[in-house]
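INFO  loader      accepted 1 record
INFO  loader      residues=183
INFO  predictor   begin
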Amino acid sequence: MKNLMVILLVIVAMGTVNAQTIYSTKTGLASFFSKTPMRDIKAKNDNVGVVLNTATREMVFVVSIKNFIFPDALMQEHFNENYMESDKYPDANFKGKFNEKIDFTKDGITNVTATGKLKIHNVEKEVTEKGTVTVKDGKISLHSEFNVEIKDYNITIPKVVFDDIAKTILITIDSPLTLHVKK
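INFO  predictor   done
INFO  writer      dumping tokens
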């Protein structure tokens, strides 16, 4: 989360040029789902940091890998130690921008795409993903579902459990944001 605060300070500092509004949260939700004929694997993380600059449409997500909670403690241990190496690579993050103009002052749901850099397991890739922005009563929520190919991020699965883990993982992000800074 230290990274999130540094990013927030940088975004706020950018505000000296243009008036802007910053929304943020430290309690966004990230979950993932792996489906194979052998087993389903799912985990949730409700400590996702998000910062959104509504004037520039820029956003940053920071996810602490160790904060993913599994129904099975052994599965969680293997995830952190064997696959994600969370001591070595503690965070995943996305830094990007909405491609569409969004009226953050009007209630409604807007379908969007965001383009930016997704960094997982110390591998950074340019991605464009779909999602929605919901504005209701001055509050903003972000939602996205997208797939991640584990091979694209150099995540190695041991042969013993290779068939137990999907090669494509469904990631879901839900982030209700609150007004942080208004200039």
